[in-house]
Amino acid sequence: MLIYNVITGLLLIFAFAEVYFKIRSKALFYCSIILVILFFGTRNDVGTDYNTYSNLYDMIHGIPPYNNLFFLTTELLYSIVCLIAPKFWIVLLVYAILAVTFKCIYINSTAYPMLSFAIYFSFCGVFYDMGIMRQGLAIGLCFLSLKFIKRRSLFYFIGIIILGVIFIHRTTFLFFPAYFLYGQKINRFVLFVSIILCFVLGQMLKLDSILNIIGYLPNSFEKFENTVENYSNLGKIMSFSEIRKIVFCIFFYEILYKSSDLRIRFWNNLYIFGVCMSLLFIHFTTLGGRGSYYYCCYEFLLIPACVYKVKKYTGSLIPFLFVAAYCFMYINTIINLPDNSDSWMNRPFIPYNTVIFE
Predict the structure, then answer these.
(1) How do residues 230-275 score in pLDDT, each as one tens digit?
(2) Is pTM, for the whole model, over 0.90?
(3) Which of 27, 169, 207, 284 has minimal Cβ neighbours within 10 Å of its Cβ?
């Protein structure tokens, strides 16, 4: 547990220097990226879905008890990297390099890149890029697609989405609505009505309705359909996670929605859509949880934007202290979740092990 908090603390110290002393060092930022990539990519027996990925690697290589070299049960990129990589940890490193880099290309263009990166590490990085890494890479690819959304290049945007579906993770298609959220203005009435309506409809939505819709997708989405069915919780009303998202959604709206920066307004729209999606599909973890994360992950860009605005007018340390506490709380919640404990799919996040010291 200590190593996670140490890295979070270091990143927050760098972020504090950036925010309050205007120390914006490219070298420090790039060194932080390399540190996190190595931390994610050289792990050994650590993280959500670790056993799932390592078993697939053994299947592809025909390692006993598997003997089928062409047993490719996952998206193409993972199979290709597994076939090329002589060691499993190299697969993890390749995914870490791609996923972190794709996100940081975009993070680097924000007002507080180090603060965004610190929040990313504790909020998104550990759970996705060090855990559910195929979807983590798909989310990174969606960050690359933002420039085509801004340019209104629908052809290239769709190309990115198709590339993600075929090669990285099938859930990439869930990001398609993002194209139509750019430049849209959502007033306060629409925001609150959308949240309430999605919550009410979400309590009424049945599994059969979802499966009927998914049934229109190509046969390659059969695994996605099975996941939706297997990870449904029809008795769920609302958890702390949904409450947190609603509170942040309203907070972001009130602080940032009058911003003249079209990017910030777009991030806000994405987050609002993600919150509505999580409420509408609240009974279906694949859609309402992991699916909505394609949109809710913009939290690590919106929070620094709020800090920037509040600091500009007040100079107060309180927003930063809140962010620091939030980062430590979030990362400790993730690494201690019962769902992330040792199982046929997962390896625990603690203790952390690395191939570097083997």
Answers:
(1) 677 766 677 888 999 999 999 999 999 888 899 999 999 999 999 9
(2) yes
(3) 27
Tokens at 291, concatenated: 């699916």
Instruction: Give the chain's mean pLDDT.
Output: 89
pLDDT, residue 341, reads 63
Q: What is the dihedral of CA 253, 302, 135, 245, to 10 degrees?
A: -40
SS (H, E, C) the chain: CHHHHHHHHHHHHHHHHHHHHCCCCHHHHHHHHHHHHHHHHCECCCECCHHHHHHHHHHHHCCCCCCCCCCCCCCHHHHHHHHHCCCHHHHHHHHHHHHHHHHHHHHCCCCCHHHHHHHHHHHHHHHHHCCCHHHHHHHHHHHHCHHHHHCCCHHHHHHHHHHHHHHCCHHHHHHHHHHHHCCCCCCHHHHHHHHHHHHHHHHHCCHHHHHHHHCCCCHHHHHHHHHHHHCECCCCCCCHHHHHHHHHHHHHHHHHCCCCCHHHHHHHHHHHHHHHHHHHCCCEHHHHHHHCHHHHCCHHHHHHHHHHHHHHHHCCCHHHHHHHHHHHHHHHHHHCCHHHCCCCCCECCCCCCEHHHC
- Provide CB contacts within 8 A for 74, sequence distance 6+: 56, 134
* Average pLDDT of the segment spanning 202-223: 77
